[in-house]
Amino acid sequence: VEFIVMRNRVDFNILVDNVSMKLLPDIHSNEDFCSEIVRNGFFADGSARFWSQSNAIMELVGGPSNFSLQVSDGQARASLKAGCFASREYYQVQIQYKIRVDGKSFQCDPLNDPKDLCPTAFLLSYTNGSFVS
Hints:
Elements: E1 2-6, E2 13-24, E3 51-54, E4 57-62, E5 67-72, E6 75-79, E7 90-101, E8 104-106, E9 120-127, E10 130-132
Antiparallel strand pairs: 1-6, 1-9, 2-5, 2-7, 3-6, 4-5, 7-8, 9-10
């Protein structure tokens, strides 16, 4: 299973940070392997480890204790912890992002703006090497 963050406009760069996914209700302790399913969603170690790209340019920005992943072109993909998913369960997914156009911040409202304006985040799962939506 992968968590995908996709830019929908070629003229946008997005800064991604604090990507989180948890099983609801949160029955896991903080020490439990599945208490945080997204690997390296906070970029706290200053790397983009466990993240990959599809036709994108990814770069860590900020620091030294507050990194974000800048995505230009394409999409960024986060690796999720295997074995932490169960059918018929509910999960809470959170992501913080900023949109930049020509170096300036841009705001969008996913409920009221055209659907291609705001970035999209979704899960992609595989079964026997094929994508399942």
